[in-house]
Amino acid sequence: PREEVAYVTCTYRETCNDQPDFLATIDLNPRSPCYGQVIHRLPMPNLKDELHSSGWSAGCTCFDSVTAKRNKLILPSLISSRIYVVEVGSQCRAPKICKMIEPVDVFWKCNKGYLATVHSLPNGDVLIANMGDAAGNGKGGFVVLDGDTFELKGNWENECEAPPTGCDFWYQPRHNVLISSAGVVPRIAGRGFNPDDLKKGVFGRRLNVWNLSCRTLTQCFDLGEDSLPLSVKFLHNPDAAEGYVSCALSGIVYRFYKCEANNWAVEEVIRIPAKDVSGWIMPKMPAFTVDLIISLDDKYLYLSNWLHGDIRQYELSKNCKPRLVGQVFVGGSILRGGPVTVCRDEELKCQPEPLVVKCKRVYGGPSKMQLSLDGKRLYVTNSFYSTWDKQFYPNLVR
């Protein structure tokens, strides 16, 4: 059935507005007089959390439990490292916080911080990927919450297996594999994007392959210096042994696949060229692909290009590389009349026009995405990371 509400994490950090972040509930029923409007705000009890990605307490992968229901939202905080559990089952239009895990517990019990991405595990527990340690140094890995009580259980991976950085992950239980991406060193990248940080190990470059049941690191792929692999997705077919990872700074999408026994391989399938520009922080603007999603029928792949401003739709095929079949601009840094001038563009003949919706100019660029269950609507947020939002899209944080 068509979804009737959407939940969106909203942050006030870096806006000079001293208010707590909140979870917005948006009415998606086209027959409702409030269609497309925020109908409820759930403020967090603390300041400057920077709510990032949200995730369900249970999903279709929880095959060990036939009673698992999607009635809790897990909200990790990227900056404070706090975790909120929100009850949405009893009052979906006005959710409430039912549990909170303080940063000190995450620091002491797991030696982790800067929490990023949430997914439920096959046994019903909740897995959260992190970017760093308590001090903001780069440190990948995962923390686990009990799927029933939402108590913090500890680290998921063996401590010696923690990669240098972390960000996103996905898994295929039938192939006993979990694949995770890299990320950034929080204490340095958190100051903003600095070209001087390139080639200094601030931006991740690894794709990590894990044994799902043993929780051990089995393979690592170096995708190139400052490639910054962020978003990872498997195909939805539970028998499929392949997926895709998007690299933000290189503009490359790799396909990863099982090649023999338990070994995996990667191949480049998409490359979005950088644009030669003036009036920007560097002479070349990379295709900063924040998010990647795949339609439920495994026919289409969608990419959000936060800096250039476009959302791309690729048709997937077993016999060839993904083919670009759709593109729409919803903001970005290369718009006509803006401070950035495109000097050379391998793809576009002219700079796109600004996006105006209901007489309001849309600032920022496409970031996180969610596809509706029937595949007919794509929901997009325009904030990536508060300090980078303020740097590249100052009108957005105002």
From TrEMBL:
GO terms for molecular function: methanethiol oxidase activity; selenium binding. Its EC number is 1.8.3.4. It is an enzyme of class 1 (oxidoreductase). Keywords: Acetylation, Cytoplasm, Membrane, Nucleus, Oxidoreductase, Protein transport, Selenium, Transport. PANTHER family: METHANETHIOL OXIDASE (PTHR23300). Coiled coil: none annotated. It is a peripheral membrane protein. InterPro entries: Se-bd. Pathway: Organosulfur degradation. The keyword tRNA-binding does not apply. This is Methanethiol oxidase. It catalyses: methanethiol + O2 + H2O = hydrogen sulfide + formaldehyde + H2O2 + H(+). Belongs to the selenium-binding protein family. Catalyzes the oxidation of methanethiol, an organosulfur compound known to be produced in substantial amounts by gut bacteria. Selenium-binding protein which may be involved in the sensing of reactive xenobiotics in the cytoplasm. May be involved in intra-Golgi protein transport. It is found in: Nucleus; Cytoplasm, Cytosol; Membrane. One of its GO terms (biological process) is protein transport. GO terms for cellular component: cytosol; membrane; nucleus.
